[in-house]
Amino acid sequence: MRIKMIFSFLLTFTSSLCVHAQYEVKAMEGFSPEVGKMVWMLEDLRSRITEMTKDLSQEQTDFLFDENANSIGALVMHLASTEAYYQVETLEKRSWTTEEEDLWGIGGSLGDESRKKLKGKPMSYYLDLWEQIRKKSLEGLKTKDDEWLLESVDDGVNNYWAWYHVLEHSASHMGQIALIKNRLP
Q: What are the CA-CA distances from residue 8 to residues 16, 18, 20, 27 (Å)?
């Protein structure tokens, strides 16, 4: 009996260690340590949102649970747009071109106009745009070091805060997406 208890405890303890090992934030290879940790978090959130949304039908992608709501497709476009904005501001030290404004501007602000324009496209359209912008972000972030994170973008705003905002924005809208999914007909 005692051997079974010890074996059971060891099995539970070992399993617990393995489970918790999956939830460690580690720096992604190819990046400076702090940038790499941030990249790990960015990728974790994007993969979780992608997993939540990738199999949605067109009706589910465009669903509005009331007249003031945003669709899941619009929210994913909004996440891609936000990242596109901070990407050019922090990594390229410039503003959007007219062409970029035309592509990303509608997703940058949510509301009546985006409700009208961000519909009729499959979820894969929005996820592909986000993947493209993320690929470009990762290429740019590979060229930056931890000191760059502390450099000022604007008064009171440094690169670290800008990318932290991309993270918090993703987490916030992930919750919104989950709420909308729970309200799907």
A: 12, 15, 18, 34
The one-character DSSP state at 88 is: I
Element (H, E) at 83: helix 72-86
**128-138: per-residue pLDDT in tens?**
999 999 999 99
Rg of the chain on CA atoms, in Å? 20
pLDDT at 1 > cutoff 70: no
The count of C-alpha atoms lying within 13 angstroms of the C-alpha of 184, restricted to the half-sphere facing its C-beta, is 16
Q: What integer pLDDT is reported at residue 84 of this predicted model?
A: 96
Among 129, 109, 138, 104, which residue's Cα sits nearest to residue 53? 129
Q: Could you report the per-residue pLDDT of 3-59, keeping only the tens digit for each?
A: 654 545 444 445 444 444 567 878 889 999 999 999 999 999 999 999 999 999 999
Cβ atoms of 74 and 85 closer than 8 Å: no
Is the CB of residue 150 less than 8 Å from the CB of residue 158? Answer: yes
Query: Considering the domain boundaries, does residue 132 fall inside one?
Result: yes
Written as one letter, the residue type at 32 is S
Q: Are 106 and 117 in contact (CB under 8 A)?
A: yes
Give the tokens for residue 180.
Answer: 């909308």
**How far apart are the C-alpha atoms of 63 and 80, rounded to whole Å?**
19
**For position 153, which CATH number holds?**
1.20.120.450
Task: Count up the domains in the chain and report the number.
Answer: 1
